[in-house]
Amino acid sequence: MPGLRFPDGFLWGTATAAHQVEGGNVNNDWWLFEHDAAGICLEPSGDACDSWHRWGEDLDIVAGLGFGAYRFSLEWSRIEPEEGEWSSSSLEHYRAMCAGCHERGLVPIVTFHHFTSPRWLAARGGWEALDAPERFARFCEQAVGRLGDLVGWACTLNEPNIVAMMGYGYGIFPPAVRDWDRRLRVNDALCRAHRLATEALRSGPGEFPVGLTLSMNDWQAVPGGEERLAELRSESEDVYLEATAGDDFVGVQTYSRVRVDASGMLGPEPGVPVTQMGYEYWPLALGATVRRAAEVSGLPVVVTENGIGTEDDDQRHAFVTEALRALHSCIEDGVDVRGYVHWSLLDNFEWVLGYGPTFGLVSVDRETFDRHPKPSAGWLGSLAKANELEVP
Length: 392
Ligand code: BGC
Known about the structure:
This protein has a single domain, classed as Alpha-Beta Barrel (TIM Barrel). It has helices spanning 18-21, 29-34, 51-65, 76-79, 88-103, 119-123, 132-147, 160-169, 180-202, 226-242, 285-297, 313-332, 375-386; strands at residues 4-5, 11-15, 69-73, 107-113, 153-158, 210-221, 249-261, 264-266, 301-306, 337-343, 362-364, 371-373, 388-389. The strands form 3 sheets. An 8-stranded parallel beta barrel has the order 2-3-4-5-6-7-9-10, surrounded by 8 helices. Strands 1-13 form a two-stranded antiparallel sheet. The protein has a two-stranded antiparallel sheet with strand order 11-12. It is an alpha/beta fold. It is built from 13 helices and 13 strands. The structure holds beta-D-glucopyranose (BGC).
């Protein structure tokens, strides 16, 4: 049987985020949260994967495996360590990373905010500070002024829906607030931050597509759950999909499905395996979410994250194979999908769960920081190079 070919120019990449891999990000809200003795984090991020120093090695691995893109994020607290104070050397660091991507034939997909905010903003109320969206847009303006000419694709905010829900609704991300009304107000603030940031990014140097990335679930109603599903999905996804009007693309990030009945979200269905994260192994979620993102937003889609936390690399291979088959069938049906970026390049700091879950194509020795590509890394890199998925 012939393989499944992807469109010419399809972007194949892999991703990381600053706080999860750089190490020593002591000046942001997450570092504080991780070190709260009464808190819920299983361990602190510490040196992470030491990618602040080893980014060149990381890029060599990404390019060597056969990928054409690398998605990474800028750490706001390094670039603006105190309000209005700009670190030229940190900006230069990220400029060198963008240049390093180009030197290796990688398109830099730059995310301007991936969950962490500087301590000074947290002290002023985080995303509840009335001018937080303006402060974020000003940061984007400064950053893009320095490296915009080298940016390939720009993502303003990573999963703002998760920032609002986990940080202000469930209280398991900083600032650990549990208040549904406050969460909904933070949704509004983040939508505004996205719009202002988009303007800032577009008015700087460089010509690149700008969008936001959204955490999306394959929402499935069990009979009687349709209405509740619509409500839940609306406040966690639709408000953001609506805020993408005028963007160049929407970034879809998918890991699993959620079933809903009349009383709310249900746990995993008996008989369906769960991953290290406790949610269901459900690779087909990718097709469902990509279709919905395209339909509601009317925009081209880039899969900016998809992957699985598992210690079984064969399971990763199987998961991605199924997910890519579903993605390919979206493309066959005419959905405009521009790329697939796998989460993650490295086994890294998985937020509250520390270094337990392993999403990486590459494992990292926690003492020496040596990188060891897993078999799935070679497989996915070759697939990327061939632009074709061989179907068993
Ligand atoms: C986030 C990543 C995280 C991944 C796996 C996404 O929600 O953007 O930071 O590591 O999922 O849980």
